[in-house]
Amino acid sequence: MSTLILIPARMASTRLPGKPLADIAGVPMIVQVARRAAEARLGRVVVATDTQSVAEIVRAHGFEAVMTRLDHESGSDRIHEALIALDPGRQVETIVNVQGDLPTIDPAVIVASLRPFEDIEVDIATLGVEIVREEEKTNPNVVKIVGSPLSATRLRALYFSRATAPWGEGPLYHHIGLYAYRRAALERFVALKPSPLERRERLEQLRALEAGMRIDAEIVQSLPLGVDTPEDLERARQILS
Questions:
Q1: Residue 105: what are its φ and ψ, rounded to 5°?
Q2: What span, in angstroms and rounded, lies between the C-alpha atoms of 95 and 6?
Q3: CA 199, CA 183: separation in Å to the nearest integer?
Q4: pLDDT tens digits, residue range 159-176?
Q5: Which CATH homologous superfamily contains domain 1-102?
Q6: Once rounded to an integer, what is the mean pLDDT over residues 11-24?
Q7: Could you tell me the pTM of the whole model?
Q8: Burial level of 90, CB count in 10 A (0-12/13-18/19+)?
Protein backbone atom coordinates (compact mmCIF):
# COMPACT_ATOMS: atom_id res chain seq x y z
CA MET A 1 0.00 0.00 0.00
CA SER A 2 1.15 3.53 -0.74
CA THR A 3 1.24 5.19 2.66
CA LEU A 4 1.27 8.86 3.64
CA ILE A 5 1.95 9.90 7.24
CA LEU A 6 0.27 13.19 8.12
CA ILE A 7 0.93 15.09 11.35
CA PRO A 8 -1.68 17.77 12.14
CA ALA A 9 -0.27 20.71 14.10
CA ARG A 10 -2.28 23.57 15.60
CA MET A 11 -0.92 26.46 17.65
CA ALA A 12 -4.20 27.08 19.47
CA SER A 13 -3.76 24.79 22.48
CA THR A 14 -5.56 26.02 25.59
CA ARG A 15 -3.46 24.13 28.15
CA LEU A 16 -0.09 24.59 26.45
CA PRO A 17 -0.16 27.52 23.99
CA GLY A 18 2.22 27.25 21.04
CA LYS A 19 3.13 23.68 21.91
CA PRO A 20 4.17 22.56 18.36
CA LEU A 21 7.16 24.91 18.69
CA ALA A 22 8.01 24.05 22.30
CA ASP A 23 11.71 23.19 22.56
CA ILE A 24 12.53 19.54 23.29
CA ALA A 25 16.20 18.57 23.25
CA GLY A 26 17.11 21.49 21.06
CA VAL A 27 14.40 21.26 18.40
CA PRO A 28 10.68 22.07 18.27
CA MET A 29 8.28 19.35 19.38
CA ILE A 30 6.67 19.05 15.94
CA VAL A 31 10.10 18.28 14.45
CA GLN A 32 10.65 15.54 17.06
CA VAL A 33 7.32 13.99 16.02
CA ALA A 34 8.29 14.18 12.35
CA ARG A 35 11.58 12.45 13.14
CA ARG A 36 9.80 9.58 14.88
CA ALA A 37 7.41 9.27 11.94
CA ALA A 38 10.28 9.22 9.44
CA GLU A 39 12.04 6.54 11.49
CA ALA A 40 8.98 4.29 10.98
CA ARG A 41 9.96 4.13 7.27
CA LEU A 42 6.40 3.73 6.05
CA GLY A 43 6.44 6.45 3.42
CA ARG A 44 6.18 10.19 2.94
CA VAL A 45 5.88 12.32 6.10
CA VAL A 46 4.15 15.72 5.98
CA VAL A 47 3.10 18.17 8.70
CA ALA A 48 -0.34 19.72 8.12
CA THR A 49 -0.61 23.07 9.88
CA ASP A 50 -2.65 26.26 9.96
CA THR A 51 0.30 28.41 11.03
CA GLN A 52 2.97 29.71 8.66
CA SER A 53 5.68 29.82 11.33
CA VAL A 54 5.19 26.11 12.03
CA ALA A 55 5.45 25.29 8.32
CA GLU A 56 8.64 27.34 7.98
CA ILE A 57 10.34 25.67 10.94
CA VAL A 58 9.34 22.19 9.78
CA ARG A 59 10.81 22.90 6.33
CA ALA A 60 13.96 24.37 7.86
CA HIS A 61 14.54 21.02 9.56
CA GLY A 62 14.21 19.12 6.28
CA PHE A 63 10.59 17.96 6.44
CA GLU A 64 7.57 18.72 4.28
CA ALA A 65 4.71 20.93 5.44
CA VAL A 66 1.38 21.84 3.89
CA MET A 67 -0.86 24.74 4.89
CA THR A 68 -4.47 24.02 5.82
CA ARG A 69 -7.46 26.11 6.84
CA LEU A 70 -7.87 27.62 10.30
CA ASP A 71 -11.47 26.51 10.83
CA HIS A 72 -11.19 22.71 10.94
CA GLU A 73 -13.08 21.11 13.82
CA SER A 74 -10.86 18.03 13.97
CA GLY A 75 -7.51 16.59 12.98
CA SER A 76 -9.30 14.25 10.56
CA ASP A 77 -10.69 17.19 8.62
CA ARG A 78 -7.23 18.76 8.51
CA ILE A 79 -5.52 15.65 7.20
CA HIS A 80 -8.22 15.18 4.56
CA GLU A 81 -7.60 18.69 3.23
CA ALA A 82 -3.87 17.98 3.25
CA LEU A 83 -4.37 14.68 1.41
CA ILE A 84 -6.30 16.39 -1.39
CA ALA A 85 -3.56 19.01 -1.77
CA LEU A 86 -0.68 16.53 -1.65
CA ASP A 87 -2.13 13.73 -3.74
CA PRO A 88 -4.46 15.05 -6.47
CA GLY A 89 -3.64 11.97 -8.56
CA ARG A 90 -5.06 9.70 -5.83
CA GLN A 91 -1.99 7.47 -5.58
CA VAL A 92 -2.07 7.24 -1.78
CA GLU A 93 -4.06 4.27 -0.48
CA THR A 94 -3.41 4.54 3.27
CA ILE A 95 -3.16 7.60 5.52
CA VAL A 96 -1.65 7.49 9.01
CA ASN A 97 -2.65 10.34 11.30
CA VAL A 98 0.06 10.82 13.94
CA GLN A 99 -0.80 13.43 16.55
CA GLY A 100 1.62 16.33 16.67
CA ASP A 101 2.05 16.08 20.46
CA LEU A 102 3.69 12.63 20.62
CA PRO A 103 7.40 13.49 20.49
CA THR A 104 8.54 10.30 22.25
CA ILE A 105 6.45 7.79 20.28
CA ASP A 106 8.25 4.60 19.34
CA PRO A 107 8.41 4.33 15.52
CA ALA A 108 7.56 0.62 15.90
CA VAL A 109 4.22 1.67 17.39
CA ILE A 110 3.46 3.71 14.27
CA VAL A 111 4.28 0.66 12.14
CA ALA A 112 1.97 -1.48 14.28
CA SER A 113 -0.99 0.76 13.46
CA LEU A 114 -1.11 -0.68 9.94
CA ARG A 115 -1.32 -4.34 10.97
CA PRO A 116 -5.13 -4.48 11.22
CA PHE A 117 -5.29 -3.77 7.48
CA GLU A 118 -4.24 -7.37 6.96
CA ASP A 119 -8.03 -7.87 7.06
CA ILE A 120 -9.60 -6.23 4.02
CA GLU A 121 -12.81 -5.59 5.97
CA VAL A 122 -11.11 -3.08 8.29
CA ASP A 123 -11.83 0.59 7.45
CA ILE A 124 -9.86 2.32 10.20
CA ALA A 125 -6.99 0.99 12.31
CA THR A 126 -5.85 2.29 15.67
CA LEU A 127 -3.89 1.28 18.76
CA GLY A 128 -4.44 0.29 22.37
CA VAL A 129 -2.40 -0.66 25.40
CA GLU A 130 -3.51 -2.59 28.48
CA ILE A 131 -4.19 -0.39 31.51
CA VAL A 132 -2.04 -1.40 34.47
CA ARG A 133 -2.49 1.56 36.84
CA GLU A 134 -5.67 1.27 38.90
CA GLU A 135 -6.34 5.01 38.93
CA GLU A 136 -6.45 5.09 35.13
CA LYS A 137 -9.30 2.59 35.02
CA THR A 138 -11.69 5.19 36.41
CA ASN A 139 -10.09 8.30 34.90
CA PRO A 140 -12.41 9.84 32.26
CA ASN A 141 -9.39 11.33 30.48
CA VAL A 142 -8.19 7.79 29.76
CA VAL A 143 -10.34 6.60 26.85
CA LYS A 144 -11.12 2.88 26.94
CA ILE A 145 -11.60 0.53 24.01
CA VAL A 146 -14.46 -1.92 24.36
CA GLY A 147 -13.70 -4.62 21.84
CA SER A 148 -14.07 -8.21 20.81
CA PRO A 149 -10.72 -10.04 20.85
CA LEU A 150 -9.59 -11.29 17.45
CA SER A 151 -6.17 -12.47 18.62
CA ALA A 152 -3.74 -11.92 21.48
CA THR A 153 -2.83 -8.52 20.02
CA ARG A 154 -5.95 -7.31 18.25
CA LEU A 155 -9.46 -6.15 19.09
CA ARG A 156 -12.41 -5.37 16.90
CA ALA A 157 -13.67 -2.13 18.42
CA LEU A 158 -17.31 -2.16 19.45
CA TYR A 159 -17.26 1.07 21.46
CA PHE A 160 -14.97 3.72 22.95
CA SER A 161 -15.78 5.28 26.30
CA ARG A 162 -14.50 7.56 29.01
CA ALA A 163 -16.28 5.33 31.52
CA THR A 164 -14.75 2.23 33.09
CA ALA A 165 -15.68 -0.39 30.53
CA PRO A 166 -16.27 -3.21 29.98
CA TRP A 167 -17.54 -4.27 33.40
CA GLY A 168 -16.34 -7.48 35.07
CA GLU A 169 -13.12 -9.44 35.24
CA GLY A 170 -10.54 -9.01 32.51
CA PRO A 171 -8.19 -6.45 31.05
CA LEU A 172 -9.09 -2.87 30.20
CA TYR A 173 -7.46 -1.15 27.24
CA HIS A 174 -6.37 2.47 26.92
CA HIS A 175 -7.02 3.85 23.45
CA ILE A 176 -4.00 5.49 21.81
CA GLY A 177 -5.32 8.21 19.51
CA LEU A 178 -3.30 7.37 16.43
CA TYR A 179 -5.34 6.38 13.37
CA ALA A 180 -4.67 4.76 10.02
CA TYR A 181 -7.33 5.13 7.35
CA ARG A 182 -7.98 3.48 4.06
CA ARG A 183 -8.46 6.39 1.69
CA ALA A 184 -12.12 5.62 1.04
CA ALA A 185 -12.77 5.37 4.77
CA LEU A 186 -11.25 8.79 5.48
CA GLU A 187 -13.30 10.33 2.69
CA ARG A 188 -16.47 8.75 4.03
CA PHE A 189 -15.69 9.71 7.61
CA VAL A 190 -15.16 13.43 6.98
CA ALA A 191 -18.39 13.55 4.95
CA LEU A 192 -20.40 12.33 7.97
CA LYS A 193 -22.02 14.69 10.45
CA PRO A 194 -21.07 14.44 14.14
CA SER A 195 -23.06 11.62 15.72
CA PRO A 196 -25.08 11.51 18.97
CA LEU A 197 -22.65 9.25 20.84
CA GLU A 198 -19.68 11.24 19.54
CA ARG A 199 -21.18 14.40 21.03
CA ARG A 200 -22.08 12.69 24.31
CA GLU A 201 -18.69 11.03 24.93
CA ARG A 202 -16.71 13.74 23.08
CA LEU A 203 -14.96 11.02 21.08
CA GLU A 204 -14.74 11.53 17.33
CA GLN A 205 -14.15 7.85 16.50
CA LEU A 206 -17.68 6.96 17.63
CA ARG A 207 -18.96 8.72 14.50
CA ALA A 208 -17.38 5.98 12.41
CA LEU A 209 -18.79 3.16 14.53
CA GLU A 210 -22.29 4.66 14.50
CA ALA A 211 -22.07 4.78 10.71
CA GLY A 212 -21.25 1.08 10.57
CA MET A 213 -17.56 1.46 9.78
CA ARG A 214 -15.15 -1.11 11.17
CA ILE A 215 -12.30 -0.10 13.48
CA ASP A 216 -9.73 -2.64 14.66
CA ALA A 217 -7.14 -1.87 17.33
CA GLU A 218 -3.66 -3.36 17.51
CA ILE A 219 -2.55 -3.87 21.12
CA VAL A 220 0.99 -2.64 21.76
CA GLN A 221 3.25 -2.64 24.82
CA SER A 222 4.21 1.04 25.12
CA LEU A 223 2.02 4.06 25.73
CA PRO A 224 3.40 7.19 24.02
CA LEU A 225 3.55 10.35 26.10
CA GLY A 226 1.02 12.91 24.90
CA VAL A 227 2.22 16.44 25.69
CA ASP A 228 -0.77 18.47 26.93
CA THR A 229 0.59 20.29 29.99
CA PRO A 230 3.83 21.95 31.12
CA GLU A 231 4.48 18.86 33.26
CA ASP A 232 4.16 16.60 30.21
CA LEU A 233 6.58 18.85 28.34
CA GLU A 234 9.18 18.49 31.08
CA ARG A 235 8.82 14.70 31.02
CA ALA A 236 9.33 14.68 27.25
CA ARG A 237 12.44 16.84 27.64
CA GLN A 238 13.86 14.41 30.18
CA ILE A 239 13.16 11.39 27.95
CA LEU A 240 14.66 12.89 24.80
CA SER A 241 17.63 14.59 26.45
A1: -60, 135
A2: 7
A3: 24
A4: 999 999 999 999 999 999
A5: Spore Coat Polysaccharide Biosynthesis Protein SpsA; Chain A (3.90.550.10)
A6: 83
A7: 0.93
A8: exposed
